[in-house]
Design a protein that fits this description.
The complex is a heterodimer of chains A (about 325) and B (about 550). Chain A has about 325 residues and is mostly helical. Chain A folds into two domains: about 1-75, no CATH class; about 85-305, MetI-like fold (Orthogonal Bundle). Chain A is about 75% helix and about 0% strand. Chain A is built from 13 helices and no strands. In chain A, helix 5 runs antiparallel to helix 10 (about 225-250). Chain B is an alpha+beta fold. In chain B, a hairpin with a 5-residue loop joins strand 2 (about 75-80) and strand 3. The chains are: A mainly alpha (about 325), B alpha+beta (about 550). Chains A and B meet through helix 2, helix 3, helix 5, helix 7 and helix 12 of A and helix 1, helix 2, helix 9 and helix 16 of B. Chain A: Belongs to the binding-protein-dependent transport system permease family. Chain A: Pfam families: BPD_transp_1, BPD_transp_1_N.
């Protein structure tokens, strides 16, 4: 197991190296010039050229690449070309809103979706099953911003229960945090509930047809123990996969939701950086997200052994 | 109270993590007291037209950076709402030969770090500004010397008279000469400053700054306003609130919802199609505080066919109709104005000579005829269309249709604004990554004089994108610089207008204004092209 973890962690190095080279080249090949954003509309060609030189954008590509990698190896992500702020502190400011919202969304989704999926499989082809399936289709089909606007209209503007927008850290008060986090989390959860419920149902249906379930039932084991201890645990591997990738996607930044609820998360940071061609920020964000995906995949893989003892590394 | 906030901030900094954060929140029940104390402070939360990303208002011409500049810096001279320069940090005298301007700093000026503002600070700031600003460059072209003769006196000596000196030093766009400490201003004009010490009415709170998200300003307790009522950037800048927070909301609907629910106090620019949502509310006022607004324009590339031919440029201008462009762009006639004056309607130099076809709906038949006379050979017109800027997506579409009707072979290419600004700087052939035509908008104070309008520069490769070589416009500008009375200036400006419409240096496509919305709790906001937060109070 330990050997496996070490192998997996070492495997990250070539993956990240390839990502780094790829991102660096791709950005430089995309048209767009950070100097033009900095200088604004009135800049003359000579002024643009001077700003480019002072930012090091006129250096040959390999020099720029070596400088960047050199900084990276020292744990430095560089400085934003546009705002002159260290990229680490920009990400530091923006990662927590996204992370907190993602955790809450996933917890909420799992708490709702797993029982729903189990219920649908258990009551296969009854109204309960159809209701779960109908909700799943609906959750997938309505665009997330529409759901967000409906929630805002009802809970913020009509009922005046919750604020429209904004983010407050949990340290500023639990209610301050929750009151602003509930609506975006519920909005995002509609998608993830649909996704996880469907996967739970499918996976449970497969397991419920197995011989050992029939045996358990024949032995007179209580139905909830059959469902949650025997069946669900064996159905958990695909469910964990979908939860893990879902979480990674949420961390990668759910731009639309961040915009609708005005959450200063990393999704918006990335989009803003792309629109401004702020190279150091884009590079750091892509590296960070890739590393996160690799890490979450590792955690998912390791969690398989807990749910399915037949899996050994 | 400041200490409480500082402690809170430090605490936040240490407990950003989710799990630790939630646990800490439970422990933090006692902070209710602190929150109550803070709640008594007057804070204005304003949604600005864009996020603040560049903090040096001299390195960029971005409006948001200029607005930030007016919050934390002050200026020597400022133009009032009658376009007259007024003393702000300094009074002045002019020598009889109009060659020496002596500025004297007023008493009690202090930087945010407590140091007094000296003449040396002003001189360094003016010199750095003069490297960047086009008006500033013109003054420095005729400057003999600029010196601080003592702590309070700045002597500016010219080689030849420059009657518009005070107007240029006092202008509010694109780059006003903000006064920074000498240690900051003596750095390179091409590298952004990293020390944000000003002497203006507000102090920038660096530890709360989040680029593109929010910026916080606190009242400068040491600021002594000038006597008199505020008027544009001149007059008494009295701050009546403790804190102003600028927040960015990328979603226009969210900003409107937040204003309706009372979470924010002010929206700098409201999308016109969303206005009905606000007009129904009793707690919100929709108003326009800047009657000059913006001019939308088209600019051609003079280097390559077909627009290297004057007749083809004239044909293109003849085909266009301001009304069509503005109706598509803005929709509601209450917020736009057909206007053929290149210096903007409502400004002292306004003159509409030569704009008849533009203002009367275009002349497609006339354009066809002109195009035939010019011998247009169907060379494609590469028209760049930005797709990600709401205020710039309509013009290319309307123009393309009119140009096609007139017989142009239009190749409209969609791209994001960043790609467009990069591509417009390219002098390559249109077929090899260059371009023929693009559209943009200017605030009227940025183009209301031939000294500052970037399109009226005829110095070929040194001119603004499009690079016209036009000796005549340079002569007319030189004549304007020398004009020493408003009447003479107006006369030269009228000739510049006529010349622009004859040569088609650029196509003015009319003026529009952007409405603003505020909570009824805000009182005393002054009319101004730059949104300012002095004189504003918040009543509960």
């Amino acid at each position: 197991m330990l050997g496996y973890i070490i192998r997996r962690i070492l495997a990250v190095i070539p993956v990240m190296a390839i990502v780094a080279v790829f991102v660096f080249l791709l950005l430089r090949l995309t048209p767009g010039d950070p100097a033009a954003i900095i200088a604004g509309d009135m800049a003359t060609p000579a002024q643009l050229e001077r700003i480019r030189t002072s930012l090091g954008l006129n250096d040959p590509l390999h020099v720029q690449f070596i400088t960047w990698v050199g900084l990276l190896l020292q744990g430095e992500l560089g400085t934003s070309l546009i705002s002159n702020t260290p990229v680490t502190s920009m990400i530091g400011q923006r990662i927590w809103p996204t992370f907190n919202i993602a955790v809450l969304t996933i917890v909420l989704s799992v708490l709702i979706a797993v029982p729903m999926g189990v219920l649908a499989a258990w009551r296969h082809r009854t109204w309960a099953d159809y209701a779960v399936m109908a909700f799943s289709v609906l959750g997938f089909s309505i665009p997330v911003f529409v759901i967000g606007y409906i929630f805002i209209q009802v809970f913020s503007l009509e009922l005046r229960w919750l604020p429209v927008q904004g983010y407050k850290a949990p340290s500023e008060g639990l209610w301050a945090f929750l009151s602003r986090a509930i609506l975006p989390c519920l909005t995002l959860a509609t998608i993830y509930v649909a996704l996880i419920a469907r996967m739970t149902r499918a996976s449970m249906l497969e397991v419920l047809g197995e011989d050992y379930i029939r045996t358990a039932r024949a032995k007179g084991v209580a139905e909830q123990i059959v469902l949650f201890r025997h069946a669900l645990r064996n159905a958990a591997v695909p469910i964990m996969t979908i939860i893990g990738t879902g979480f990674a996607l949420l961390i990668g930044g759910v731009v639309v939701t961040e915009s609708v609820f005005n959450i200063p998360g990393i999704g918006r940071l990335t989009v803003d950086a792309v629109l401004a061609r702020d190279y150091p920020v884009i590079q750091a964000m892509i590296l960070l997200t890739s590393a996160l995906y690799v890490f979450i995949n590792l955690v998912i893989d390791l969690s398989y052994t807990f749910f399915d003892p037949r899996i050994r590394y | 109270m400041l200490r409480i906030q500082k402690t809170l901030n430090q605490f936040r900094g240490h407990t950003r993590g989710a799990v630790t954060g939630i646990m800490a929140a439970a422990l933090l029940a006692g902070t209710g007291v602190a929150t109550q104390a803070l709640a008594q402070e007057k804070t204005i939360t304003a949604v600005m037209h864009s996020g603040l990303r560049v903090l040096d208002p001299i390195i960029t011409t971005a409006h948001i950076s200029r607005n930030h500049g007016y919050m934390i810096y002050d200026v020597l001279v400022a133009v009032d709402e009658n376009f007259q320069p007024q003393p702000q940090m300094a009074d002045w005298t002019i020598s009889d030969d109009n060659l020496t301007y002596t500025f004297t700093l007023r008493d009690g000026l202090k930087f945010h770090d407590g140091a007094p503002v000296t003449a040396a600070d002003a001189v360094a700031s003016l010199k750095r500004w003069g490297e960047k600003d086009s008006g500033g460059q013109l003054i420095f072209d005729v400057t003999e010397s600029l010196e601080a003769t003592d702590d309070k006196t700045i002597v500016w000596t010219l080689k030849e008279p420059f009657p518009a000196l005070l107007d240029t030093v006092g202008k509010q766009s694109a780059l006003p000469p903000f006064i920074m400490p000498e240690r900051v201003a003596s750095g390179s004009a091409d590298e952004a400053v990293t020390d944000y010490t000003g002497s203006g009415p507000f102090v920038f709170v660096e530890e709360e700054y989040q680029p593109g998200v929010s910026v916080t300003y606190r009242k400068n307790e040491d600021y002594v306003p000038r006597e008199g009522a505020p008027s544009w950037m001149a007059g008494g800048k009295e701050v009546k609130v403790d804190t102003v927070r600028w927040v960015t909301m990328p979603d226009a609907q969210t900003a409107i919802n937040a204003l309706l629910s009372g979470e924010i106090d002010y929206i700098e620019q409201v999308q016109i199609d969303l206005l009905p949502l606000l007009e129904a509310s009793e707690d919100v006022v929709v108003e326009t505080r800047d009657d000059l607004g913006y001019q939308t324009i088209g600019r051609m590339n003079f280097k390559y066919p077909p627009f290297d031919n004057k007749k083809v440029r004239q044909a293109a201008m003849m085909a266009l109709s301001q009304e069509d462009v503005l109706a598509t762009l803005i929709g509601n006639p209450q917020y736009y104005k057909v206007c053929g004056a290149i210096f903007g309607c409502g400004t002292p130099l306004a003159d509409e000579t030569g704009s008849e076809t533009l203002t009367s709906g275009g002349d497609i038949e006339g354009a066809k005829k002109l195009l035939e006379e010019a011998g247009y050979d169907n060379t494609p017109v590469v028209l760049m269309q930005p797709t990600d800027v709401v205020s710039l997506t309509a013009q290319p579409v309307v123009a393309a249709q009119a140009l096609r009707q007139a017989g142009f072979n239009v190749d409209m290419q969609a791209m994001d604004w960043q790609t467009l600004v990069t591509r417009r700087a390219s002098q390559a052939k249109p077929s090899e990554g260059g371009w023929n035509l693009f559209f943009t908008n200017w605030m009227v104070p940025e183009i209301n004089s031939p000294l500052i309008s970037p399109m009226l520069n005829g110095r070929g490769d040194d001119a603004w994108f499009g690079w016209p070589e036009d000796q005549k416009i340079e002569e007319l500008r030189a004549e304007f610089i020398k004009a020493d009375t408003p009447e003479k200036q107006k006369e030269v400006a009228a000739r510049i207008q006529a010349h622009n419409m004859e040569e088609v240096l650029y196509i003015p496509l009319g003026q529009y204004i952007m409405p603003q919305a505020r909570s009824t709790k805000l009182t005393g906001m002054i009319a101004s092209p730059v949104p300012v937060f002095w004189n504003v109070d918040k009543v509960e």
